[in-house]
Amino acid sequence: PSPGASVTLEVFDVLGRRVATLADAWMPSGRHTALLSGANLSTGPHFYSLRSGDAFLARRMMVVR
Question: Which of 2, 14, 29, 34 matches a 20 to 30 Å C-alpha distance to 57?
Answer without folding.
Answer: 2
